[in-house]
Fold this sequence. Notes:
By secondary structure, this protein is of the alpha+beta class. It has helices spanning 27-39, 85-91, and strands spanning 11-13, 16-19, 22-25, 41-45, 52-55, 62-67, 78-83.
Amino acid sequence: MIEKPGPNETxxxxxxxxxxxxxxxxxxxxxxxxxxxEYLQKLGKDATGWDTLYRDPTDGRLWEEIxxxxxxxxxxxxxxxxxxxxxxxxKYPTLFKVSEK
Length: 101
């Protein structure tokens, strides 16, 4: 069962951990993977192709998946955080259609 984002939850940050000499994702990183593949609705990517915008089908909140550790291979583990619609419209303008009058 997927642990859906709680109503007051705003940030889920994944980390890499060493388990017996093997680098693996921590529980938060694994949760992000499950949320983005099985629960959240993918809306699209930003112009760089790195960041991804999602919508929570239950409450409509927008979530952005980013990679905060640019110094690490592949940007490091993912982070998922709640983003306002105004900020999403700025960063992902092609995902929000504006009707012209």
